[in-house]
Each structure stands twice: as C-alpha cells, then as structure tokens.
Amino acid sequence: MAEAEGEANNSKITLSEVFEDFLDVIDQINNEKFIVLGRKGSGKSAIGEHICNIASSDANIFAKFIRRTEIDIEHIVQIGINEGERIEQEMLFKWVILTQILSLIVQNQNLCNVKDMSNLKKFLDKNRGFVNIEKHEIKEIIHERGINVNLEYFKRFYTALFNKKVAIKEEKAAFFKLIPYLEETISKILIKDPENSYILIFDDLDIGYYKSETDILTLSELLRIAKYYNNEFLGRNQLNSKIVVLLRNDIAKHLCYNADTAKIFASYAIELNWYEEMYRTQEDRLKLKQFINKRIACNFEKNGLEYIKDKPWESFVNEQEFVSFDSMGNTKSSFKYVIEHTFFRPRDLILFFKDIDRYKFPIPISRSNINNLIGRFANQIMLEIQNELTAVFSEKEINITINVLRAYRNKKHFTYESLRTDLENCGLKDNAYNIIDELFFYSLIGNINNHGDVSFKFREKEGDICKINPNENLILHYILRVYFKNN
Known about the structure:
globular
C-alpha cells in the first residue's frame, strides 16, 4: 500500500507510482499559496515528496526538504547564547533559506556559463558546516569559529557577477552581514534563469514542539520570512521559485493568536481536508476512496491478480459480508465500515492495511479479518494519538486523560459535565475545559444530538467551523472504543 509516512520510499510500491494530487494542492502552490496545513497523516509530507520526485525527473526543477531534525533554529540560537554569540532568528532563517537556494542553483548544469560559478560552489563548500548544518556538528563549529563565514570565494564571484566589490573588508565576517549580498546575487542569477524553478520545503516542524512561547515565536518568524521571500523577493521580481511550509493544523491553531500570523494563514494556507459531505451517499466519488483504490489496483497489477478495474476496493474486500444497516436504517458498505474507524485521512487507510501480506488473508478479505485489522489499527493509531497530543499536553496529562476516557468505553454517550467532573477529580481541575476542547479538536470525542446525529471535527464541512456543543451529549470516537475494549 506504500508507506504510512509520505517521505518513505523504500516500500514495494513507491509514492511516485501511486501519487495523485486529489486536493489540487500543487496548482495552488504554483500560485500564491505556500503553507500546507493538515492534521498528522493528511498527506503534507507526501506533497513535499511528490515535488521532490518531480524535480528528480525534470531538469528544470530543483527542490529539497529542510527538516527541523536537520536544522533546528532554536537549538542554534541557544548554542550561540552559550558561546556568547547573539544570533537573531530572523537573520538565521534568512541565511538558511538563501544558502539552501544557492545550493540548488549550483546543481544546475545550465548555469555553468555564469561567470565564476565555480567560486560560488567553493564558497558553499568552504562554509559547508554553516550551510549544510548538521545538528551534531554546529555546536563545535560555533565554539571554534563563532558565527563567522569565509568570504574569499564569494567576493570573487560577486565581483565577477556585478563588476563591483563587496563592501565588507574582512575575509571573515558574521554570516548575517552577507545576507543583502546573497539576496542580490540570487535575484541576479534567477533573472538570468527564468526557465528553472527552485523550491525549498520546510517539514517536520512539529518535532520537539510543545506550545511554548519560544516554539510559537520561532514558527511565526518562519512564516513571516517565508511570506517575505515568496512575495517581496521572489514574487515581486517574478522569479520562478518558492518557499513551501508544511505544518500541522493543531500547531497552526496556536500561532493564530498573533494577528499578523492569522492573516498569513487566511491568505496563503491550503487546508488538507479529505472529508466530503456532498458524496456521503456516493462513496465512489470520495477522493479518499479514489486514493485507496489507486493503491489497491497497483497492488493487484504488481501481483498479477485480476480485479474489477473500476472497483478495486470491492475486489479487495468481500462486500457481500457487509450488507448491513446502521442505526438509522441506512446500508453500510465495507468502505464505510472501515472508514468510520478512522479520522478520514490517507495515512489511516495506509496504516490500516500496512504489512497485510504477512497475514496471508484470502482475497477478498472477509469481515472477520477486517475486524482483526481494526483491532491492530486501534493499537497503532493510539500510539500516534498520544504522540500528537504531546504538542499540547504533558505526559502526565495525556495518561490521566486517556484513563478518564477509558471509563466511557461501554457508554453510548455521556455528558460534557460528567467528563469535566471526572477530569477535575483526577487532578486536572485547572485545565479541564481546555482538555475537553482539545479532545474535540483532535476528534477523540464528538457530539451526538437527540436524533442520533454525530458531529466530529474531522467531518467539518467546507466553509463551516465545527465546535463542541456542551449542551449536547458526547461520544467516543469508534476506534477509541475498540482500543479500550481490547486493552
């Protein structure tokens, strides 16, 4: 089924074989949008990986990821403080963006005719410790050399390109002094190079994040600078390049308290929402079913198995065993049966069927075997939920909250007040209201009205804002019920 992580490409089926931009994200990125928002598992990294895959086969596109695991701005700033060096986040972000664009530019063989390009390469190589920043090396580099970079080769390149000299006399200077010259250089090169695109993709920004003021300020700074380069620097000069930021929507929510950041999201963000209310009764038109159908079909073809070409799912799962009715008397297909145990994300379905070949299930898969997969999926998704919640709660708060929810596993529904009281009685009195709000935001709980209509955050309709209603009963997400009953 390909890997659950979008960036994993070592599976039997690679992302490039099955990727399709069902939500038209690439077209929006090609215009003014540059932030891709979505819950963990919604396909953000897959979008970035797809861009890099395109670049690997297109001589006119150059792209690379910048991940927090590799370049941790807060970590570098703190090292500077410890070493007596003042490093401003704004300048460091600009340095990273500019030098990474240059590192892509020097890969372009068509620019060999740019005078003294070899000296630009030598400049990047000479300062590679401060260009291709390695988290485990940067501390030693700053300790030994401070924040200075060697300017010798850049000065030669700049003089050849502009027929004038860099106004910095020293052979070594603080990196931020070079930023105006780097901007001028990139602008000049890209104006001469209109046929090529250079794309930087910031990803894994959730790693190490915990809703602290420092974390929020750092990410807000990145968005502001990405906007500046995309609009003022690249866009205004009609330069065919882009800075793309992939960000979890639960983290983005914390940044919206800043008015400037909220405006950036409103103008430049793409929300990955796979739920489609209009096709609830036409499931074959659902993008999420089309998504999994493409992967199922690819598996059938790779294994030389026959299947119904326009209905891969129905060839994969024994539909006859799912002729059932829900509480409202509506028929429930096998796809609906599976999807109601998920959060309506691509990753959920990939994770659901991950390593299925190990089980040697007969094809089409029976209802009994689907139930076995649901039990396994419940254990896997619970680990991911706990990891996701670390962005807003401490480990202690997470453990207490899960234990409180466990008490509702056999109840069809419960009240807002009973949940609040139980959280407070277990030591979470100070933030019980906030915890309930977050549980609803992550769709671990939903509302259920007197008519049996259920509303979860992940089922939010386009243009609507789904908020918890304290006056209606609450319900556990179905996969939590499964997990608690099995564990």
